[in-house]
User: What shape does this take?
Amino acid sequence: MRTGEEVRDGEKKDKGGIVCAGNFIVDRVHTLSYWPEQGNLAHILHQDVGVGGGAANVVTDLASLGFPGKLAAAGCIGADIDGEIVKTRLQSAGIDVSGLRERPDRATAHTHVMNVPGQNRTFFYHGGANDAVTDTLISPATFANAGYRLFYLGYLMLLPGLDGIDVDGRSGASRLLEAARNAGLTTCVDFVSSEDPEFAAKVGAALPYCDYLIINEIEAGRATGVTVRGTAGELNQAALLAAGERLLAAGVAKGAIIHAPEICFWFASGAKPIISRSRPVEPADIVSTVGAGDAFCAAVLYGLHEDWPVERICAVAHAAAARCLGGATATDGIPDMAALLEDVKEMQPVCA
Assistant: This one.
């Protein structure tokens, strides 16, 4: 006779799942009175400790959204207090952490996030165990055999063990994504907004093994060489359209999703791009911008897994990002999916 726990596990397997691989970071978010000039003093008004990084934020957000399938994490942490913080936080959300490898020779990656309300945040980052992630340390086939369907990898350009290009012109990320595809998983990729001069070449090596690419407008510009914002910061929609087409031409197979605070473009081969505009958020309602892009990404993955229409996915993703802005850490502003669906009832996408 099957126990209740076995039945629940079997139901979750039948409903599929998403594995999130990549960065796992302990974020210490410091809210400042103002941003000081060098040599000056600013007060830390408030401090929060959270678990961050592309994979950590996305998988935690999916749990908060009430994702109906299984969730798993894959990557590297240190054998230290911060590593325990990561595992405890994820396990408390019902996330399988068996894919997290402990590295006794490395500290868990950590970031000091300096946040001035109403302004962009600044990061001071130590890569630690994240820098040890390679394609040989993660087994996509193990997750595929357990019933998972989607394989998310993030962030490229913040995983040096996967970003480097070898003599064959391949990167560790490209090999890992290829292994995920060969195992039957749908691959989904996100970048970080690095200023590495080799940005385009490094991410370009992975694009032919990417089914869905979910990135912001700055990353789209750096990946394609297109200038997406003017000198005054205005968004150039024509440039974004060009960037999206270049990403598809570079090998992205099923969808290139480019999001900005104002708008989202969803590109698919042979189809007109779907354009979805966001609702403005009052500056006074913004506690922190940390994690808004990851919240957008998590909602996209949720919708992809559940085979929702593109228009619905975009609207829900905008709503998830907006909700995230009201939280101090990268993940504590995310509600259940039912709340997001209420948020988007009146939102209508604009098709180009």
In short: The longest helix spans residues 310-324.
